[in-house]
Amino acid sequence: MQHLWEISTTECAGGKESILRRGNVYQIANGYMGYRGTLDESGPEEAVGITLAGLFDQVGAAWREPVNAPNGGFTRVAVDGAELAAPGPAVASHRQTLKFADALFERETVFMAGGKQVTLASSRFLSAARPNLGVIRFTVTCDQDADLTIRTGIDANIWDLNGPHLRGLAAGRRGDVLTVEGRTHEAGKPVAVAEVVTADLGAEDHLNEQNRSLRVFRLRARAGQPCTLVKYFAVFTGHDRVTAPIAAAVEAVQAARRLGYAGCLAQHDAEWQRRWARGDVVIAGDEAAQLALRYSILQLLMVAPVDGSANSIPARALSGQVYKGAVFWDTEMFMFPFFLHAYPEKAMELLRYRIRTLDGARRKAATEGPGYRGAFYAWESQDSGDDACTYFNIGDPITGRELRTHFRDKQVHISGDVAIALWEYFKVTGDDTLLVQGGAEVILECARFYYSYAHFKKDRGRFEILDVIGPDEYHERVNNNAFTNMVVRETFAIASATVEHLRQRHPAVLAALLEKIGIAGELAGFADAAARLYVPAPDGATGVIEQFDGYFKLRDATVEELRTKMVHPNEYLGAGQGLAVPTKIIKQADVVMMLNLFKARFPAAIKQANWQYYEPRTEHGSSLSACAYALVATEFGDLDFAYQYFLKTAQIDLLASYKVYVGTIFMGGSHPAANGGAWMTAVLGFGGVQVESDRVTINPRLYRKWQALEFGLEFKGDRFRIRITPAAVTLTPDRLNRGHPVFVIAGETVTCAPGEPVTVDVAEVANSKAS
Length: 771
Ligand code: BGC
Description:
By secondary structure, this protein is of the alpha+beta class. The protein starts with 5 loop residues before the first strand and ends with a helix. Belongs to the glycosyl hydrolase 65 family.
C-alpha cells in the first residue's frame, strides 16, 4: 500500500503556473518553516521559498507578509562546464516524490549533457525533531568520466511577493560553516542561516557571488560512481529564544553533522511515527479517498505550530507569502477540530496564539468603530494581532481600481469563532489550563465586544446584530446574519459559563480577572443579551432560514448565469458592484455552515431543507465551502453528495485545482482549511462522531464504497483508536488511559476501560431497535 503513502510526478516543465503549483503540492514543512517543492538548483524564478512561521515584515507601503529565509538548500552542478538545471533543454527524465510517512521530498533528474548522462538525486527533510533544521542528501552520478563543479551553499536570492525583507545581508564563515544574516526592515529582527556540508569530494573553495555564499567543489567524477554530499542548514531568528541567532544556527548545523544524515533522519522519522499514530485515518476500499485524505492530514501535521511558539496556521499555511501569511477564522472553524480531536497539544498552541494576540484585538475594537469595546479579532491576523486586512483588499481586474471591501470592519463573527474554539477545547479535553491562562479573558473580552456592537431594539424587545458580513462575503453590510447572530449568542452564553466555571473551580482567578479588566458590572448584560438576542429561525412552512434580513427579496439567479456575464475571468463577484451582490448567489456555505457548527440544535429535516435551498445558490468560490455542504449532507443522509464534496475538499491541494487569482490578488498556495474540512467530513461526517462534554456519540454513516474507517480520537486526555465497518464499531482504548468514558454507539451506551477493546455490532443494534 506504499502508493497510498506518497505522490510523485515526472513533470518538471510547464511554465510558471505549473512550477508554482508543483511548489505547493510538493512542499514540506515542520511548523517552524515551509520549504516549497522546488529543486535544489531552483531560484526566485521558480518561486523557491523557505517561509518562516510567525515572522512578518513590511517594506514601504506594500503588504506586510511573512519573511522567507535565505535558501540554505541551494546546490547547482556543472558538467564539463555546462550548468544543469531543471526545467531545461538537457532534461531527459525527471521524477519528484513526496513521501507522506515522514514528509520527505525526493527528486531524481537525468540530464544529457555533451553526450554524457548525468543523474542528480536528492532527499530533503525539515526536521520534525529539531524545528530549525533542514537536511539534504545530494548525489551526482555520471555515466562517463566528467569534470564536475558543484556549487552549494546559501542563496539569498529568494522569492518575495513584497520584499526583499532582509537588509544588511552579510555572508560569513565560522570554520567550515557558511552563514548569511540579515535583519527585517520593520522590526530589525535578525534572521540567520547557517550551512555545513559533509562530503568526500576533495578540497573546496569559497565564493560569494550574486548574493550567494557558496562552497565550490571541482572534481573529476568517475563513470558510474556517485558523488555525494550531505547538507545541513539551520534558520534562527529574533523570535527564537536564543541570544545570538547566528551562533545558534552554527551550533545547530554542527550538532546535526555530528549526528549524521541517518541520525537526523531517525529522529525525524520517530517524531513522524508519533504524529501518524495519532492523526492517520484509514479508509479501506477507496484508494482515491484514502490518498487525498492522507495527503490532507499530512498538510496539517506538517504545519502544526512548534510547541511553545504560540503560533497559528495561516490560510495558505507555510506555502509562501500569499494572503499575507495571515491567520483567519479558517483556523478555529476548519483546522482546529482535527487538532482538538487527534492532537490536542497543537490545538492548545493554536489557541495560545489568540491569547497572545488579545491586545491586538483590543486595539482593533478601540479604533475600528464607534464605541466598540473588548476584543474584535483581526480578520487577517499576523504576529501582533493587529489587522492586516485593508479596507480596499481586492483590486478590480477590469478597471484596475481598488474595491472597498468590509472584511476587516464588518466580519465580526471572527471574535466569536475564537471564543467558541476556546470553549470547545475545554469541553473536549476537560482541561481548563487555557481558560485560566488567558482564555477566560479572551472570552469575556469577545462578549464585551459583542455587547458594544449589538443594538437593542426597544420596540421589539430584542438585541440585533446589524451591519455585518457573514461567511458569504458577496453580501456585505447585512443585518441579522443567521450565522453571525448565532455565534454572538453563543459567545454570550460561553462567557456566562466560563464565569460560572471559574467561580466554582478557580474563584481567586476569577476575582483577579474581573478586577483586571473591570468587567464584573457587565456580566448580567451578557446573560440578558444571550436570552434576548434575535436569531433568524427556520420558516414555519419551508424550514429555510433566511441568511440575513431581506435575503429572500434578492433576485434569484444561477451561478452559470453570473459566469456568462463576467467580463474578466478573475472578476470579483462581491464588493459594491459585483455581479452576485443584487442576487441570491452566495460565495460559500453560510446558513449551512451555521447548521454544521451548531449541528446538535437542528433536526435533520431543517438541515435538508436549507441545504437544498442554498446549495444551488452557492458558488463555492471559497475552499471553505465544500466541506460544510459535505458535512451537513451526511447529517440528513445524502451520502453520495457528501462524498462528492468530500473528495472536492480532500483533493484541492493534491490536484492543485483552485482559483489562483481573485480580482488582482494572487492567491495560489495551499488550503489547510480544506484539509481540515476533509478530516471533519471523514471522521465527524461519515464516521458520525460527536464529542460532548460528558460523552462521545458515534452514529456511523459510512459511504457505501468504504469497507472500514479507522482513526484516532482523544477525549479528556485519553486516547482511542476507533474502527468502523458497516457491521460494527470497535473502540480500542490505549492501555495508558486513566478514564472510563462513556461512548454511545448507534444508541448503545458502553463504558471504555483502559486497554480493553469494545465492539458494538451496529447492524444488531439497528435490528434490535426495530424489533
Ligand atoms: C473566504 C474566507 C476565508 C478566506 C481565507 C476567503 O475567500 O471567503 O471565508 O477566511 O478566504 O481562506
